[in-house]
Amino acid sequence: MKMKLEQMDLRLRGLVIVRGILQDPVVKRYAAMVAASGDPAAFVTAAAEFEAALFDSGRCWTDYLLDTVLENNNICIRRAAAGGAGPAAEAALASELAVLQQAGEWGLEELLDDAPEALRQACRFLPRWETGSADYAAAYDKRRAEVGKKGYGMFARYHVFTVEDARLVPVHCPDPQRLSELPGYETERAKVIANTKALLAGLPANNVLLYGDAGTGKSSTVKAIGNEFAADGLRLVEVKKNQLYQIPAVMESLADNPLKFILFIDDLSFSSNDDDFAALKAILEGSVGGRSHNIAVYATSNRRHLVKERMSDREGDDLHAADTRQEMMSLSARFGLTVTFQRPDKAKFEAILLELARQYGVQMPADQLYIKGEAFAIRAGGRSPRVAKQFIELCKGGVQL
To answer: So what's the pLDDT on residue 323?
Structure first.
């Protein structure tokens, strides 16, 4: 009869549905450890490498392995919303979950329970990793029921992404901006929030254009919404203007994902002969494939009409100049919701200063705060929430203004 270590080695080698967990750095070292049972020296080395990686994570092995399994991108979780992956795949998944639960609950003593005495003696000085108890099958069923909010694979671990070569790349340290940290423009933000909630609820949601003066919080609004609704199944994908041609491939890869996605294009504008202009028009509305129900495009711009137009453009030899101008303005019209962020007046700027001072713990009489803040804004080129934040941060840092 094979000892526990050999049995576990064979079962890990034979993983099919959740095979991707073997690429996890800690699980990979665990698999290498159980595979080295025939050589005490090699086993000790592999066990030490596994424990070093696990201890570095600061996690109990039972919980670490369970989370790795729950976040695995596999056919059963991908097809959860469509009724499952079929009886053969579901049976294989159940068997693998039982094996992995056993692996997660076994410590070194259990693994070596029936091992040769030489191997047990070689491991006597090794530390013991922490284990607990967990029902992997029940936890997996719960995760599948919540897949529309929790996601799977990298979407379970991250909520902000960028695009590289038409593939999504997770952002490990996204901007932590929250809606509660953005004073002013509550009416404007409420429209964007309502549209986002419609997207999350599976209701018709519009593409959104946030335009207006620089520094008024357009980009911060989108980032804060991405953070605010991440737990509800929202993921934010930042796309640069020169990557627009890659969006169709990205949208196709996300079409069957149970999560909801905002494709975020910051500081959008085009020259009149820009090839990306037609690409974005097709993405927003005009392609034969249409836009997936789980994706919306949110763009920010300092321009209401996204295509730069010069006076010389009106004086050329175009026989149908009016049609050309309509073509240039048609892009903005393809955003179903346009929200304007205008430079704040004096009263709104003072209210923003006061709220930011409260958030940062800046102790200054209100009248003095307003006078110094206004003077700083004049030197900075005008009032805006960005200028107000810069002023408060300088005050917090003790800079004399």
So the answer is: 43
